Amino acid sequence: MARITLDHIRHAYGPNPKSDAAYALREVDHEWADGGAYALLGPSGCGKTTLLNIISGLLQPSHGRILFDGKDVTNLSTQERNIAQVFQFPVIYDTMTVYDNLAFPLRNRGIAEPDVDRRVREMLEIIDLSDWSNRKAQRLTADQKQKISLGRGLVRNDVNAILFDEPLTVIDPHMKWVLRSQLKRFHKQFGFTMVYVTHDQTEALTFADKVVVMYDGQIVQIGTPAELFERPSHTFVGYFIGSPGMNVMPAEVHGSTITLGSETIALDHAPKIAAGDKVELGIRPEFIRIGREGMAITVTRVEDIGRRKIVRANLAGQQIAIVASEDIEFPAEPRVTFDPGALNIYANSWRVGREA
Amino acid sequence: MEKTWNNKAWFLVLPVLLLVAFSAVIPLMTVVNYSVQDTFGNNAFFWAGTDWFDDILHSARFWEALQRNLLFSFIILALEIPLGIFIALNMPKKGLGVPVCLVLMALPLLIPWNVVGTIWQVFGRVDIGLLGHTLAALGIDYNYVRDPLDAWITVVVMDVWHWTSLVVLLCYAGLVSIPDAYYQAAKIDGASRWSVFRYIQLPKMKRVLLIAVLLRFMDSFMIYTEPFVVTGGGPGNSTTFLSIDLVKTAVGQFDLGPAAAMSIVYFLIILLLSWIFYTVMTSSDADN
Fold first, then answer.
1. Fewer beta carbons below 10 Å: N end or C end of chain A?
2. ipTM for the complex?
3. Whether the predicted model's global pTM rises above the 0.90 cut
């Protein structure tokens, strides 16, 4: 178990990167607590797998250092860092039995056979494959294979961290739930530092204590699921998390009021906006009320998603989404109000804090 | 599963059946026809029964040639398969080196057999050949025309030069199909270079290796052109393989009956050995 410090990590795949755009990872400078469960969430190509491979040592960062418990491991090999990693596609050694697959990392480290046997049997119990121990690993189902990959990581009980690279991609939906809850249980049981890469927000939000949202090679926010939902610090987080995502509309701030087309909303404070900043107003669809007062909208479409309805509407020339209850009735001239506490104001895509 | 019988389906395989009949079955039947008859020319044939088969199976010349064939195929497989794997493992996986290596590897395969034979025939000559002359200049007594061992070495080296590329290309195709994650997982599991080969690369190459072994076995067992061009089966009979012997009998001596019987025995041996190879090498798959 270890605290992981990412000290000004930058990475480019090509040599001699000339501009920021050439970096797959622009700058990451964070510290992850020992025993934490972190999810790296972001769209494809945002640098999350790059960051994961830098932590595991499969990649050397172009700049910066990585520390485990304050000890610099930047130049150590994957094996010396003593981490485990589970990949997107299950990696198993086809020709070995399930038992030998699990024993493989231990035997490679020269652990005595009685110890190997004890730990492998424990692990077979944990991942629920005891009955399969003497079977060739080749014919197992995808989720059983992925359990073996996971078991090979967990069987070394001294690992510094376990890294997951979208491990549930190839698993059937109903098995995903089972495996994910098992992962949570392992985390509680063993207290590993876990880093979990995914592009699926549900997976990230249910798995992790802290979700690290990445966008375009940088970390845009680290927070609990609630923080990400209520106070997205970047318009991307607002848009990426939540279904549908946050409504983000161009706006203008004058003192302590914000203008949205022809509509003006009074704020309880004056956000600090520099001249020339691109100002946007963000509001989650869950915090918009439809009624007889407020700003006029024209409803363009209503999607029924079961217990709720998603209303697509036009507000001051902007398309917005509103989450409404199933039994909503639209007045003749529908209008909307925003929950004042749920307003987020963004300058150049970054959230302007109340305290700022 | 319930099997459905539909006799109309036979019509669908008819075109292939006709094609195979004309390309293989009918020519083979003419050989069978020759093998049980004797002729003295003028298209007059006499029934000979199994005499020719008796002759062949009791002929020392046949068994010696068969032994040479088996030894040759064994040496070829023992050299080309490990060497091919070794080269494939060391070929670049990305970058400019890949096309360069692939083209270099493919070159020997593009040369016609008799040209390969001619190249080595000249290359090995003591008077004018680069190899033969250099060896002679170094004081090494090498002469493939006089010494049976030198003749064998020349023929074997020539075949290795000509055909190892095929093994390399097949193995390389197997290797590049292994996802990176396997190597990364092996690193994380602390696997040694040997373990990576034994548990990742070799299992993934198994299928292509089976094809490589079969192809190289069948080809080397049927080898004709190159040794014929280089040594003509000599010195003495030391490099007379079954195929060379067969041509000598059929075309040289014009003994159609014995030659036909010999072809059939030769064909059955190749069929049998290939079947054994295939069965042995695929049996491990059926285990689990």
1. C
2. 0.72
3. no
